[in-house]
Amino acid sequence: MVYSQQYKVTDTQLIITLPPAFKNKQVRVTIDDKVRENNKIAMMKLAAKDPLFLSDMKEVNNDFEGIDHETV
Q1: What is the average pLDDT across 27-47?
Q2: Is 19 within 8 Å of 48 (Cβ atoms)?
Q3: Which residues contact 38 (CB under 8 A, 6 or more apart)?
């Protein structure tokens, strides 16, 4: 099981209350201060499956289809 939660750090101590499913188990804690970058990657992964985004990309590709084979 993976449990992911974002916390705002206001001091140097962080106390995390885990769900009951983690009782009597070992866990690995990773501190990652690159939250913005992780969010951007997650948003790009969502966009890759978003029908509106995909239709927009297809429309842009269609607009440039005629000039893709031209030489400068």
Answers
A1: 80
A2: no
A3: 32
